[in-house]
Amino acid sequence: MKKFVIKSTFYLLGLLFLAYGLSLMGLYTLKRSQFFKPSFLVNAFKPGEQFKLAVFGSSRGLASLDTKLIADELEGLSANFSMDYTALPTAKLMLEHFYAQGYRAEFIVISVDLPDRDTSKTVISENDYRFLPFRNESYVQNYYSRYDEGLVKPLAASGSFPFFGFGYYNMELLGPTLISSIKPDYRYQFDELGNFEYPDYLGMDEKPEPRNFQTALTNPILKEIQELTIRNSSKLIIYIAPYLRDEINLLESCPYTVINHSRLINKPNYFSDYIHVVNSGKKIATKAFIEELKKLE
């Protein structure tokens, strides 16, 4: 029995060391790649790069603003760091990541969605595992500790035990790791300036019954973002991308500079669903955004 226990312990320790080593190698490979947005931010631009404009948000910010078109109209580098299947807390994390890596921007654009206008759910977003290569950064660890919930907290535990996060999200990480080891410049569904578009053939045929909302954008995370941009000498712009169904009216007490395009586009053929514009709608939204931005320069 004693020999069995010793052998079992030895094999278990061996497996743990192997898992630890493989997870470190995988996360290092992803950290040196451009596959996901957090690594793209670090590896696609020069250290200390100065941006004219940087966009942060969810898939709506990703689908609605084309930073190539913005760069064509305005002098300076513009990029979209929005990430699909995330919420406002992740946008703040990405902004912290942006500043911590030494970048600066004249304009910071935060795309805000309906669920985040006044409060945000205190849970991990679906794609927050993409920050795992930077798990030892204090702002990432603070985020994981704050939002990771449940009995098993693989992201929060990954600072000391990276195989927890890599193992838990193995289906999402193994493929990207293999691709990145062969082609480190490969980007997953976005171009060299972080843009993604929904093709026009996805346009809808019918418009749903409208809904109306009022807000002063009282989400405390927006206040934290504002303080972060002030400390880093950036001008904050809150952007509300087009909705097919929803109209958002801002109350006078809203303390932010806001470009509200919730009702900019009303035709369903410009939307792939109720909340995302297709490429032709993206061009309309971006051109209108540029005109509003010029007034703020």
TrEMBL record:
The chain crosses the membrane at residues 12-30. Keywords: Membrane, Transmembrane, Transmembrane helix. It comes from the Bacteria. This is SGNH/GDSL hydrolase family protein.
